[in-house]
């Protein structure tokens, strides 16, 4: 048994950190809120081989596993880097699974960009494939496919603006590929300016069905859950380190504030959330490779733990810093904005909690019947 | 990432499984601690010891299997799979035995370890006192050396699991009150049938008595009863506490605190499995238990690489207790008032508030992690460098 990262995986993380350290991404995140353009990190991502990370070698990719993708996302999340991989990687994963070599090769090489138009797989309580609604709590039906055309609307699609190709998951669990130019993509909120989102409408858009195995489109959903979770892990680590450093140097009543138990215990709670999330990140990475039946449970538990840890850490970072932590000049609000938006995307962290329950109840029911 | 057994470990697992298959009918069904059940559990521990499954990580020269932490995990998993009980004296074999192996004299090891392993002699841990728990170095039980080198022991210990069944206790006592408190402590082996030892059960919220108070009234101890150096008991105790953290941190699933078991409980009420609030709460609780399982694998990977378990293990205990409390609340909300006395889950409600303080209170554990892992400064201390006797005098003055 070995439940730690390999030397190659550690190296991948370090290399990603090195790549991202060349650009002041956090500073850019702040300026983007005031309308400045974001630095274009795509060329650096291409140089690092990230667009083809999950694509097989035959199709020009690196043929790495979801865990490696998560490690890159941890580094992206650490510095709030805006690289449109949350849409791109699940899309290329599906195209590669479908053997769509012509479509996936330019995407793996980073010559073009794809976005995954997500749909949540059926649960133990509902047989429907559903999408996040533009407003409210009621989930909407995923787009439908007939006569070579896709019709429907999906809100809050990561990285849709600027994508060349779209891989859309349909209401029957299949998926289709189309040119982004054939869909209407309306850029959505910039509460976190580093997160590119779009509302996508298909009005009988011409599309090609992908030749996938049952389970592939569900796996793409859980892959996206794992990636947004990994991003949170990196952000929590930064929030913790920054807060600990401040708690050691800031003094009140003659001593460092980190010596007070009220502050110390809050910082330890950040570490506890981080540690639990990291353990589940490894679980999700391991399950993706070695135990696919458990990937829905593992990825959902990870998304939930990481999302909750991030939500807590982003708030705690502000509190530990006092008033200054809530000012525009400080980095803490940028992490807070990221946390606030992330918890509400891709089915939300609450949706992940429901999925964990559903998966375990389903297993228990099957065992009780046996 | 690889959770599969190596060929060597797979072979070991097969052997363990075969042994358990052959002997599982001998395991008692109940975990109770009445005398009759305890006798059966002790007989079962002897059988496990004979099968090499009781002290997997002890060195072979002291009767252990001389294997690593991964083998211990295989044994735990297979015991769970076979549906049999594990050893009875977890405190002895898991914590006190390893302490004796690390700090005891050769004579002590030869005398005590064998019967401990077979449960012919059960052990208890005599550390905490009514006025020394979180601040363990403040123990007041006094050991005075006599001119002939023997000792006399007086004081009171508390929260002592298995004291009523124990032949021996490992006891932390003050041997020199005139030096700062960590420096005047010594560890002793105390025969529980010695003159002046009184064990009294301590009932808790559940009405049951899982712990005892132990009174020591001028108890005579032979010369050589000390473990490790005189006045060097604090270091010996730290070894025990380190093993305690590993035992608790990796042990939650052994108590049946697992996501899948709680999922089964929810099936009692079909409607609750569709209730959004129940599902949300259960999803969050289950996630904490899953995190513990995989944190355990990370800890094991470190142990296997020869790293000493660090303070991080303390967080596993915090998560275990918090998740178990939340699970008890949820299941009793589903089952209604009868859940509070349900024999499967009522213990979660009644025992957890106390267990939150056992093996280090949550607050002390958070201090420890904050200081040792995050490097945060400690709270200012008023006892540093002050002789214990002076400290006590000051405390009395402040109260008066």
Offer a concise description of the structure.
The complex is a heterodimer of chains A (370) and B (400). With 370 residues, chain A is an alpha+beta fold.
Secondary structure layout plus pairing:
The complex is a heterodimer of chains A (370) and B (400).
Chain A: H1 7-20, H2 25-33, H3 42-48, H4 66-78, H5 85-97, H6 101-108, E1 114-117, E2 130-131, E3 140-141, E4 144-146, E5 149-158, E6 165-169, E7 175-179, E8 184-187, E9 197-206, E10 208-209, H7 216-249, E11 251-252, E12 255-256, H8 261-290, H9 295-321, H10 332-342, H11 348-369
Parallel strand pairs in A: 1-6
Antiparallel strand pairs in A: 2-3, 4-5, 5-9, 6-7, 7-10, 8-9, 11-12
Chain B: H1 7-23, H2 35-50, H3 69-82, H4 90-103, H5 106-117, E1 122-126, E2 142-145, E3 151-158, E4 166-174, E5 185-191, E6 197-202, E7 211-221, E8 226-227, H6 233-249, H7 259-266, H8 276-304, H9 313-335, H10 346-355, H11 362-372, H12 388-399
Helix pairs in contact in B: 1-3, 4-5, 4-6, 6-9, 7-8, 8-9, 9-10, 9-11
Notes on the structure:
- Chain A is of the alpha+beta class.
- Chain A has a domain of 154 residues: Butyryl-CoA Dehydrogenase, subunit A, domain 3, CATH 1.20.140.10.
- Helices cover 51% and strands 14% of the residues of chain A.
- In chain A, the strands form 4 sheets. Chain A has a 4-stranded mixed beta sheet with strand order 1-6-7-10.
- In chain A, strand 6 and strand 7 form a beta hairpin.
- In chain A, helix 1 runs parallel beside helix 4, helix 4 runs antiparallel to helix 8 and helix 8 runs antiparallel to helix 9.
- Chain B has 400 residues and is of the alpha+beta class.
- Chain B has 12 helices and 8 strands.
- In chain B, the strands form 2 sheets. Chain B has a 4-stranded mixed beta sheet with strand order 1-4-5-8. A 4-stranded antiparallel beta sheet of chain B has the order 2-3-7-6, with no helix packed on it.
- In chain B, helix 9 runs antiparallel to helix 11.
- The mean pLDDT of chain B is 92.
- Chains A and B meet through helix 7, strand 12, helix 8, helix 9 and helix 11 of A and helix 7, helix 8, helix 9 and helix 11 of B.
């Amino acid at each position: 048994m070995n439940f730690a990262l390999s030397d190659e995986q550690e190296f991948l993380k370090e290399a990603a950190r090195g790549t991202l350290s060349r650009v002041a991404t956090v500073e850019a995140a702040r300026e983007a809120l005031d309308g400045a353009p974001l630095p274009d990190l795509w060329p650096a991502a291409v140089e690092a081989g990230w667009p083809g990370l999950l694509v097989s070698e035959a199709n020009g990719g690196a043929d790495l596993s979801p865990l490696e993708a998560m490690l890159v996302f941890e580094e992206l999340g650490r510095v709030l880097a805006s690289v449109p991989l949350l849409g791109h990687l699940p899309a290329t994963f599906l195209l590669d699974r479908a053997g769509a070599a012509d479509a996936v090769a330019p995407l793996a090489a980073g010559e073009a960009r794809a976005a995954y138009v997500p749909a949540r797989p059926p649960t133990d309580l509902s047989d429907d494939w559903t999408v996040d609604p533009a407003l409210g709590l009621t989930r909407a039906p995923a787009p439908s496919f007939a006569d070579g055309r896709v019709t429907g609307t999906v809100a809050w699609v990561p990285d849709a603006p600027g994508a060349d190709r779209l891989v859309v998951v349909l209401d029957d669990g299949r998926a289709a590929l189309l040119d982004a130019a054939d869909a209407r993509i309306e850029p959505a909120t910039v509460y976190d300016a580093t997160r590119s989102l779009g509302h996508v409408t298909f009005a009988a858009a011409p599309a090609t069905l992908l030749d996938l195995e049952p389970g592939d489109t569900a796996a793409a959903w859980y892959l996206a859950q794992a990636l947004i979770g990994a991003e949170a892990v990196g952000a929590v680590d930064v929030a913790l380190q920054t807060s600990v450093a401040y708690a050691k140097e800031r003094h009140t009543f003659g001593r460092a504030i980190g010596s007070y138990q009220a502050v110390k215990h809050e910082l330890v709670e950040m570490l506890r959330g981080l540690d639990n999330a990291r353990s589940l990140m490894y679980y999700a990475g391991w399950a993706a490779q070695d135990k696919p039946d458990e990937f829905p449970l593992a990825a959902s538990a990870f998304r939930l733990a990481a999302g909750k840890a991030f939500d807590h850490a982003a708030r705690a970072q502000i509190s530990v810093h006092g008033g200054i932590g809530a000012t525009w000049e400080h980095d803490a609000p940028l992490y807070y904005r990221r946390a606030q938006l992330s918890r509400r995307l891709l089915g939300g962290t609450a949706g992940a909690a429901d999925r964990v329950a559903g998966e375990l109840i389903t297993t228990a029911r099957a065992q009780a019947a046996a | 990432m690889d959770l599969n057994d190596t060929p060597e470990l797979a072979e070991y697992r097969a052997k363990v499984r075969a042994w358990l298959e052959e002997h599982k009918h001998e395991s008692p069904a109940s975990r109770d601690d009445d005398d009759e059940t305890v006798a059966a559990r002790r007989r079962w521990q002897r059988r496990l010891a004979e099968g090499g499954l009781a002290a997997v990580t002890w060195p072979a020269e002291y009767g252990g299997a001389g294997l690593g932490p991964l083998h211990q995990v295989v044994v735990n998993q297979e015991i769970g799979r076979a549906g049999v009980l594990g050893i009875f004296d977890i405190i002895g074999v898991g914590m006190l035995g390893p302490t004796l192996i690390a700090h005891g004299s050769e004579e002590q090891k030869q005398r005590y370890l064998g019967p401990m392993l077979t449960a012919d002699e059960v052990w208890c841990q005599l550390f905490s006192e009514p006025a020394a728990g979180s601040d363990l170095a403040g123990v007041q039980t006094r050991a005075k050396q006599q001119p002939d080198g023997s000792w006399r022991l007086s004081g009171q210990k508390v929260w002592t699991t298995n004291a009523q069944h124990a032949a021996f206790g490992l006891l932390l006592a003050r041997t020199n009150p005139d030096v700062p408190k960590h420096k005047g402590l010594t560890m002793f082996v105390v025969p529980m049938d010695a003159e002046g030892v009184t064990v009294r059960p301590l009932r808790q919220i559940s009405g049951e008595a899982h712990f005892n108070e132990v009174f020591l009234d001028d108890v005579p101890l032979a010369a050589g009863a000390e473990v490790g150096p005189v006045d060097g008991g604090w270091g010996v105790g730290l070894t025990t506490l380190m093993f305690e953290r590993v035992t608790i941190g990796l042990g939650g699933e052994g108590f049946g605190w697992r996501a899948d078991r709680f999922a089964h409980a929810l099936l009692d009420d079909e409607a609750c499995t569709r209730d959004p609030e129940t599902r949300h709460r259960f999803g969050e609780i289950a996630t904490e238990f899953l995190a513990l399982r995989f944190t355990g694998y990370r800890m094991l990977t470190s142990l296997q690489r020869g790293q000493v378990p660090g303070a991080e293990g303390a967080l596993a205990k915090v998560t275990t207790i918090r998740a178990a409390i939340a699970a008890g609340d949820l299941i009793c909300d589903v089952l209604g008032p009868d859940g509070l006395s349900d024999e499967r889950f009522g213990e979660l409600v009644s025992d957890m508030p106390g267990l939150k303080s056992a093996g280090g209170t949550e607050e002390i554990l958070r201090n420890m992690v904050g200081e040792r892992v995050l490097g945060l400064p400690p709270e200012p201390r008023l006892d540093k460098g002050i002789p214990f006797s002076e400290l006590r005098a000051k405390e009395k003055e402040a109260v008066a």
